Amino acid sequence: MAVREGLLVLLGEGPRHGYDLRNEFEARTGALWRLNSGQVYTTLERLERDGLAESSPDGDDASGRRRNYRLTAAGAEELRRWLGAHARDGELPRDDLVMKILLAASGDPRLAGEVISAHRHQLLERLQEVRREQRRVAGGMAARLVADVQIVRLEADLRWLDLCEQRLRDANRGGTDRPGRRES
Amino acid sequence: MSVLSLDRVSCRFYDGRRAVAALDDVSLAVRAGELVALMGPSGSGKSTLVHAAAGLVRPASGSVCLLGTAAPPGRAATRWWADRRRAQIGFVHQRLNLVPGLSARDNVALPLELDGWTTPDARRAAADALTRSGAQDLADLHGSHLSIGQQQRVAVARAIVGGRPLVLADEPTAALDTAAAEEIVELLANLAHEGQAVVLVTHDGRLASWADRVVLLRDGRIVDEVGAGLATVAADDPGVATPDRQLS
Ligand SMILES: Nc1ncnc2c1ncn2[C@@H]1O[C@H](COP(=O)(O)OP(=O)(O)OP(=O)(O)O)[C@@H](O)[C@H]1O
Ligand SMILES: [Mg+2]
């Protein structure tokens, strides 16, 4: 997702000023994403250039510099398309945890077990931290949802560790071979 | 003082000829104001631990103390534990165990009535416990007419009713959806912060994260504990231990 789509969503709800868009964007994403005003205005210019938004001077503004932005019909269509399109972050994560476990799991089973236990401990600690934070800040909906997604994803990693452990156990019980070699 | 403490507890079961060490030299203390989560693979001894804490399983060695008093040895234990379970322990069984012919309200009021409460008082407390566990609309339904998830909520109400000092919950949310499970465990966390001692058995890291301490079991032994340092600070400092329950 880019700033462009975020602004489309907000403009889809009705006309707004540029500064308004920036504040709303941060509030709605639980401050996961901070914008500077330069980014907002460059993006608005591009939306206008592409015919997705249009603007007019704000009648109430004496300086005449403040502009009011609204979505065009093409913009509304682009917004609907984007909201329904496949989320792009579905690739297998080649992240640090996954690489560490994969490398450890194909080696000495004892070490693999220790590595899994260490990461389980850390994930549980992290889960407790996020939960404490969620309870501490009686924040708005966005803050709650941000904590929820962190918690659910950490839990997914934990479940994966449980699976890894179980598979390694089964493999070491069943055969003499190390699990990493079985599939080759 | 600890509400519950297990000191070097071992429990063995015999299946035919073989002895299974369901708990092997386990020590654990749970204080008032604490929520402790127990995690571990199936068969690692979680249920055995909470059963030992309620006197439903007697250790082969080691001792269990409630509110500073050790369970007596031998025959005296049966009576002693029955009294504790009535007056001091709320228990959510993994197999729920509601009385099928009684309404949800009467199921919840039952432990208090057995403990000598008057019927109106017990029913008032039951209504309150049902509300806290989100089961207020189920009060008049019979145990046998409830879905598993609904039974689970009523079983939680029965465990928390009357505010007994120790609540033991063995997978109390296994049949609930994500949001409902969150609600129930948040309730248990709130009870702990109001001063009860709570032990929660769960397979979900997400739910265990509500706990002040997460204790990991494997093959009947405690192999790790997460969050102990912070729990000590929170429990000793009344400023931190006061409920912060704005997220409801
Ligand atoms: N009454 C019993 N008789 C014989 N063996 C038992 C008995 N209760 C438990 N066990 C054994 O003791 C071990 C620990 O069982 P326990 O029920 O405490 O596991 P658990 O961690 O609660 O598992 P789960 O996550 O499946 O509920 C297992 O090997 C189990 O088979
Ligand atoms: Mg169990």
Using brief descriptors, characterize the structure shown.
heterodimer, A: 184 residues, mainly alpha, 2 domains, three-stranded antiparallel sheet, 8 helices, elongated, B: 248 residues, alpha/beta, Rossmann fold, six-stranded mixed sheet, four-stranded antiparallel sheet, 10 strands, binds adenosine-5'-triphosphate, binds magnesium ion
Secondary structure layout:
The complex is a heterodimer of chains A (184) and B (248).
Chain A: H1 3-12, E1 16-17, H2 18-28, H3 37-49, E2 53-57, E3 67-71, H4 73-84, H5 96-105, H6 109-136, H7 141-174, H8 179-182
Helix pairs in contact in A: 1-4, 2-3, 5-6, 6-7
Chain B: E1 2-15, E2 18-31, E3 35-39, H1 46-53, E4 61-66, E5 69-70, H2 76-87, E6 89-92, H3 104-114, H4 119-132, H5 148-160, E7 166-170, H6 178-193, E8 197-201, H7 205-208, E9 213-218, E10 221-226, H8 228-236, H9 238-241
Parallel strand pairs in B: 3-8, 3-9, 6-7, 7-8
Antiparallel strand pairs in B: 1-2, 1-4, 4-5, 9-10
Helix pairs in contact in B: 3-4, 3-5, 4-5
The complex binds adenosine-5'-triphosphate and magnesium ion (MG).
Magnesium ion is lined by residues 46-47, 94, 170 of chain B.
Kindly estimate the percentage of residues of chain B that lie in beta strands according to DSSP.
Answer: 25-35%
Structural class of chain A, by secondary structure, is mainly alpha
C-alpha geometry of chain A: elongated
Which chain pair shows the most residues in contact?
Answer: A-B, 24 and 19 residues
Side by side, the strands of the main sheet of chain A go 1-3-2
**Terminal Cα span of chain A:** 38 Å
Low confidence ranges of chain B = 231-248
